[in-house]
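Bug #2210: token dump truncated for Lipocalin-like domain-containing protein?
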Amino acid sequence: MTLFAKLISVCFFTIFATSTQDNRLYKRWKVIADKRIFLNLDGTSHGGFKDRVDSIKSDTVFIELFQDGKFKSVDGNGTFTVFGDSIALKLPDGESPFRYKIKDDSLYLSIDNTRDDYIRREVLHAVKI
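Reproduced locally. Full output below:
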């Protein structure tokens, strides 16, 4: 019986810890920067391209994530799925998988585009509204 109680405790803790982490996502986020980083295939900095950061001044560039798995954004409304450190945003015209990180009230969404000889990483930086 104690093994069963421990198993229930572990399951409850896992579910609670996961939902607490994800709850930080369910906000309205204003995108403030779009950073492009160029890397070699081994992950080191690529010398042939210069990294670039574009500031986004508009208040209309946002994403709002809801607990029911839906989101609103400047690009339209859709659904999303969270798995580990990844989030898949689904709009009617397709799906975009991102890695996400929340740090100091900021959300970072990153996606890698692998080319023949380099990786172009795009990182969206958003702050909660």
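Output looks complete on our side. The longest strand covers residues 28-39. Marking as cannot-reproduce; reopen if the truncation happens again.
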